[in-house]
Amino acid sequence: MEGTIRPDHLDLDRLDRTRRIGWVDLERIQRARTLVVGAGALGNEAVKDLVLFGFRQVDVMDMDRVVRSNLNRCVLFREGDHGSNRGKAELVAERAMELNPEARVIPRHGRVQSLGPEEMSPYDLILGCLDNVAARLHLNANACHVEIPYIDGGTDGFRGKVQVVRPPESPCLQCAMNRSHFKVMERRFSCTGQSTVFYRPRMAAEITTTSVIAAVQVREAVKLLSGRPVIEHVLYYDGLAGGMEVYAVPRDPQCPNHAGQRSLSEI
């Protein structure tokens, strides 16, 4: 009969359950252009969560190709990908659009250092899913320059952290830097004498922690775009203790990323 409402009509909307969370601004989320830098373990989980939540415009950037040791913590990679010679970003984009055909996920093959303010300015939000300090600081500095929110994630075994940078108001990654971070940055070498490759030791990694940290990153992206308060300072996760703590990081007035900026409370 014309006009009859089927009992299961709401289940035909893939986002019905999300729409029931009153404060989530799905229209804003679907309009937002998001960049995920890093298509490894964290990047796999972050892109998966983004497209399933309802993000429709996602770019993912990485310079690497899949190796077999990626397969135990990268949900979008498959056995055989390590022999395909296809880039991580390309595979993540393809598989993410299989999860949600309404999403447009564009791969970008390249180095983090190729991203400058001009390349970042079209985005509404940037998620950092990286595994070295130098690359994180590059994203952080350029995001601060163009005042685009940057959500940084990192893991080490069963531990992880998330920091939400909202320039110019919040402290940035460099505000929280200590001497040990700079020592890691100093350990670098050049293969050709023409380019610099940053030292990256093999680190413990496993799927449960990367799943938790990426989920927190995407949750904070949802909150930020929906006008809700986000994590201030740095959230640390300890999977062995089963807890999370937020540690305060002061906004460093001497930080070069805040030079000439005033926080909103000072305006």
Give your account of this protein's structure.
The chain is of the alpha/beta class and 267 residues long. It has one domain (23-255): NAD(P)-binding Rossmann-like Domain (Rossmann fold), CATH 3.40.50. Helices cover 30% and strands 19% of the residues. It is built from eight helices and ten strands. It has helices at 16-19, 26-31, 41-53, 88-99, 117-120, 133-146, 179-186, 207-225, and strands at 33-37, 57-62, 104-109, 125-129, 150-156, 159-165, 188-189, 197-198, 234-238, 243-247. The chain has an eight-stranded mixed sheet, sandwiched between helices. Helix 3 (41-53) runs parallel beside helix 4 (88-99) and helix 3 (41-53) crosses helix 8 (207-225). The longest helix has 19 residues, at 207-225. The radius of gyration is 19 Å and the shape is globular.
Number of helical stretches of at least 4 residues: 8
Integer-rounded radius of gyration: 19 Å
CATH class annotation? Alpha Beta
CATH topology: Rossmann fold
Question: Considering DSSP H and I runs of 4 or more, what fraction of the residues is helical?
Answer: 25-40%
